[in-house]
Amino acid sequence: MTATVERPSVTMPQMSDPSDAPQLAFRTLALTKRFGDVTAVDGVDLDVRRGEFLAVLGPSGCGKTTLLRLVAGFERPDGGGIEVGGRVVAGPRRHLPPEERRIGMVFQESALFPHLDVAGNIGFGLARRDRQRRIAELVALVGLAGLQRRMPHELSGGQQQRVALARALAPHPALILLDEPFSSLDATLRSQLRGDVREILRSAGATTLFVTHDQGEALEISDRVAVMRAGRIEQVSTPDELYLRPVNRFVAGFVGEANLLPGEVRHGEVQTLVGRFRAGHGALADGVRAEVLLRPEQLHMLQVDRLSSAPRPESVLTVVRRVFHGSEVHHVLRSPTGFEFEVATPSSATIEVGTRVIAHARAREVPVYPLDAE
Amino acid sequence: MATLTTRRSASRVPAPPAWLTGAGALVALLGLLPIAYLLILAAGSDESAIALALRDRTLGVLARTLVLAATVTTASVLVALPLAWLTTRSDLPGRRWWGVLSVLPLVVPSYVGGYAVVAAFGPRGTLQSLLEPLGITRLPELYGFPGAALALTLFSFPYIVLSVRGALLRLDPAYEEVSRSLGRGPWRTFWTVTIPQLRPAIAAGALLVALYSLADFGAVSLLQFDSFTRAIYVQYRASFDPTLAAVLALMLVTCTGGVLLAESRLRGRARYDRAGAGAARPPATVSLGAWRWLALAFCSVVVGLSVVMPVGTIAFWLIRGVSAGEPLNLVWDATLNSVLASALAAVLAVLASIPVAVLAVRHRNWVGVLIERATYAGFALPGIVIGLAFVFVAARFLPAIYQTLPLLLLAYLVRFAPEAVGVTRASLLQVSPRIEEVARTLGRRPGAVLREVTLPIIRPGLIAGGALVFLTAMKELPTTILLAPTGFDTLAVRIWSATSEGFFARAAAPALLMVIVAAFSLTVVLRRERDR
């Protein structure tokens, strides 16, 4: 089920293959964790290159937090292994405790030490020698110069997360783990801070594994995104690849807004309400039922009473609802059979509720998912 | 994350380091020692012990003790509920002051309270001498049940005031507002919404009062009421037959155990939390109107009896004693001994509470739960029972430490560790486990995390727990008189020996010092309540 690893599966003892070790900062192999009957993490293979920012995206309870805790060493895997910085930290007969893994961690709640000031928090993981210099470096890096003597409760939520990040970066960890670090902040602050955090991590050259349930967040700041469901990785891709070519209906629906238009294959094409589309590389057989993924902005509308010729009645749609999103408006269209989907237009080109329209797709090459196959 | 979190709490319990389990188990075993030894003693007894247990006189003691505990608990709830409500939710004039005064009786040990009750209301007491000019020469009989019930109620009801007041302050006003918006008036809302939410707090406070009255030795002895503790003491003094005393002690422990069980049932299974996230809003204040005169009268009577009366009595006898040439110099070394023993007990109890609380909160597997429960056994063990068990164990197996300070401290530890564990546990629950996990990723082993992160964070809680143990150890009478080294007079022993022989003036100076030191440690305990 993993669309990620394009190398032969190797067994644990051979994991530290010296040829690709320098590029890889982190990898898991067939990592598995069970809680009673539930398999929270189910054979996960991931690899992260040095300096890369990888998001693990999934709905609540998909196992992404367990994955993070396995990597950090707070949980012991039931199978598979973990390698950090070219060193096996978990595997058969091997389980390094968290303090020996060289991993920095930032939690949703900042979890700053309430009895230590900013400098004390950042310096917690540092040896005495060089400590002051490194603290000063990090305070400058996260933009909190002058606040070294503040106590955690005297900082705003965003400042607290910056300190938490500085504290994690201070001992030069091989890998930084971010566990939903922005979700306790309000919306404006969140979007500003995530840009800043990305920049801080980039300039520190840190390798990052970032867990979130917020797809916007994941797409915005990640080099690659791994979509997780029920303990398994469904797809690992760059954000645009993930958005444009999701490997299955779950990923399509989870990342961005998706219209899945049903149709039937005829002569290598899927016939839908809004036109015909090429039925993918697999060349599906005639008569197979399939769904076509069309994002709302890939569709456009024409008003029926402005058309020169009358359209076929089954393709006439009615605008039943409008949802205002600022720069654009989503129109919910209903077909004569009752099927509903959304079309986005710029706010300036909106169409009234009740108007009769037909819809067209701008794209011809779109993902097609055969039904009853998944 | 909801489902995942539940699953985590069910099965993701990290294994504790062995040293932690070892330390916790040691504390737990110590807590179980007295009861185990009493069981062994009772099991080895002949029929005469069982005959003793079933004798009419013993069953009479059992009935009297239970009636006393029930009366004191009921009366305390009736006094404490209005006080707690008036001092948190009404516009009672001087609300803050009444709030402080209503918990002040906690600094009066029961034997000082009993002594004050006798000296004030007893034959030839203050009240009678005031009434004598009016021709009243006989007051209603005080000794026995009425005096014991009065003294115990007056000096234990603040436990309920504290717990109910805490609950009233934490209560989310949204529940009451919803009830009002759904058409229920203030009175019906109070009975159908507020009171049910206070139930766990009332039960928790009532539990403390019930245990206090079951375990009390000082007040019942001074007021000559034959409850279990007095019967055990008399049995022990009269015959030095450990078996018979052990049987009586076990019967008493059965009572306290039953009360603990009843409370956990009464607490109910509903959860009482704030309705949602967001800042806590202070609840609205109720205007008393003309009722405030009645409220003021009620508060005055309660505070008058539970604060002014004992302090006044002590002052009266102190002045009388000093003017009659009572020597004061002997009080200082008793004070020093009291402070020394109580401070050591506080330090020991707090140290012992740490592994138990960490196991119970962070490593909640069956071992952790078992260790926590075993430590709480001390709650069910009245001081006289613990004292007796340690006397027997030491006399039989460890004559070298019999009547030494270490033995007294061990007994104090068993008796007071549960209090410290309660406070440490509550503080620990406030610390997010994430904070400790961060410390692990920054290179600290579990022991270093405890030392450098967890303990510094919960330090205010540790201090409050220590102050609480200090306060109760200071007041502890039965354990002290049974186990104190010869010549090691504490304030408690000094007050006890003077009052039990009727030398009220001689008891006044130590009683005053006791109340002052206790009041000081109570402020430390309460400061934390306010900070929370």
Structure at a glance:
The complex is a heterodimer of chains A (374) and B (532). With 374 residues, chain A is α+β, with helices and mostly antiparallel strands.
What does this structure look like?
- The complex is a heterodimer of chains A (374) and B (532).
- Chain A has 374 residues and is α+β, with helices and mostly antiparallel strands.
- The longest helix of chain A has 18 residues, at 187-204.
- Chain A is 20% helix and 34% strand.
- Chain A has helices at 64-72, 118-122, 131-141, 157-169, 187-204, 215-221, 239-244, 249-254; strands at residues 24-35, 38-49, 53-57, 79-84, 87-91, 94-95, 103-106, 175-179, 208-212, 224-229, 232-237, 259-266, 269-272, 275-278, 289-294, 299-303, 317-324, 328-334, 340-346, 356-361, 368-370.
- In chain A, the strands form 4 sheets. Chain A has a 6-stranded mixed beta sheet with strand order 7-8-9-3-10-11, sandwiched between helices. In chain A, strands 2-1-4-5-6 form a 5-stranded antiparallel beta sheet, covered by helices on one side. Chain A has a 5-stranded antiparallel beta sheet with strand order 14-13-12-15-21.
- Chain A has 2 domains: 12-102 and 173-253, Rossmann fold; 257-370, Nucleic acid-binding proteins (OB fold (Dihydrolipoamide Acetyltransferase, E2P)).
- Chain B has 532 residues and is mainly alpha-helical.
- Chain B has one domain: MetI-like (MetI-like fold, Orthogonal Bundle).
- Chain B is 77% helix and 0% strand.
- Chain B is built from 25 helices and no strands.
- Chain B has helices at 2-11, 18-43, 47-54, 56-89, 95-101, 110-121, 126-131, 145-156, 158-170, 173-181, 186-215, 218-222, 228-239, 242-266, 291-323, 330-362, 366-380, 383-397, 405-429, 433-441, 446-457, 459-475, 478-483, 491-500, 504-531.
- Chain B starts with a helix and ends with a helix.
- Residues 1-11 and 273-279 of chain B have low confidence and may be disordered.
- Chain A binds chain B through residues 35-36, 38, 40, 60-61, 63, 65-66, 72-75, 97-101, 103-105, 107, 109, 111-115, 124-125, 164, 167-168, 171, 173, and chain B through 1-4, 7-8, 10-12, 14, 432, 434-435, 437-445, 453, 456-457, 459.
